[in-house]
Amino acid sequence: MAVNLQAPSTLLPIAGARLGVAEAAIKRPGRKDMLLIELVQGTQVAGVFTRNAFCAAPVQICREVLATGVPVRGLLINSGNANAGTGQEGLLRARRSLAAAAAALDCDAGQVLPFSTGVIGQALPDERMTAAMPRAQSGLVGDGWIAAGQAIMTTDTVMKGASRQVQTAAGTVTVTGIAKGAGMICPDMATLLAFIGTDARLSAEATQRCLQAAVAQSFNCVTVDGDTSTNDSVVLFSTGAVGGRELAQDDADFPLICDAVAAVCIELAQAVIRDGEGATRLITVEVSGAGSEAEARMVAYTLAHSPLFKTAAFAGDANWGRILAAVGRSGVPELDVGRIDIDIDDVALIRGGEPDPAYAEARGAAVFAKSEYTVSIRLGRGDAQTRIWTCDLSYDYVKINAEYRT
């Protein structure tokens, strides 16, 4: 059961983008598992991808296409098969599916970007995708974001989507995004699959910069289990349908649009953690007073990846000694524990490296029993800070991943 998360009932359409889904029986029949997105001519597309050395065939192709600067006219996404660890055969099958998508969109195969999610190491059934392509093409609609979000789900229990609007000199700019992800989630450029669209008219450089800034605040600030996937991809496309002049990074409206994109990405990233495999708690970890942001993130992720802390969180056990232990082994050089303060919500645990004299077990237990709470760690070393989101580690996480291929 996802933590305080419900699927959106509506998502705002993005002028210049149409979405269509189809059942291709990629993993098993009976569900829509393929998504085709058509983009109007002139759309700018930016991407951020996994750093996993075993990156999947679609990630390799996306990087190649985007590096050429060729105008992108479509996105092809499938669930149920990652097409990762499949070598040259995986690239061949991905390209065959792109040829079918390009024919459906009346463009060149090099103008369509592929994305896959699902089981690693299995051959992509591109022939099934090709057979399903006419159904996806005939179903292309501007308001297809809800169905699109459902089609890219794997172990997700809730469809994830968000929309925002902002007023600019050119008019009302809309931003809408969908994401999938519940396990194998750890920041390393993207952490999952996410597709965000806007009708703003951004330059290519502004689109990439906007995406990178948004990812830094959102998808690179979450972790479920510390595993970075082979397929992680986040894409931002700007169709320019709102009109007006093309916006560069120094334009007055650029920060407004970037804030809207970041807000959508943060909502999606938090939704991924709320729906983390087996999750029953959403935990915010805030580290401040660090000597650098890298140092703050080191502490935050040491705690967020600690099985001892995460299992105690699942139990609602106020075993705050596991927080101390994680901070102490985080690897921060010359860490002075006598300067460290730690709180959970408004309950003080540690002051100056020692138990707060006012702490009572009942107060701590009340916080740890909540479905959402914040762990605040102040290092007393500088002004740098960070904030990340994680979840607990439950019985169901083990069950889901033990049975993933069945």
How is this structure best summarized?
With 406 residues, this protein is an alpha+beta fold. The protein is built from 11 helices and 16 strands.
Provide structural commentary.
This protein is α+β, with helices and mostly antiparallel strands and about 400 residues long. The protein has two domains: about 15-275, L-amino peptidase D-ALA esterase/amidase; about 280-400, Roll (Ubiquitin-like (UB roll)). About 30% of the residues lie in helices and about 25% in strands. It has eleven helices and 16 strands. It has helices spanning about 55-70, 85-105, 125-140, 145-150, 205-215, 255-275, 295-305, 305-315, 320-330, 360-370, 395-400, and strands at about 15-20, 35-40, 45-50, 75-80, 110-120, 160-170, 170-180, 195-200, 220-225, 235-240, 280-290, 340-345, 345-350, 355, 370-380, 385-390. The strands form three sheets. Strands 9-16-11-15-12-13-14 form a seven-stranded mixed sheet, sandwiched between helices. Helix 1 crosses helix 2 (about 85-105). It is globular. The mean pLDDT is about 95.
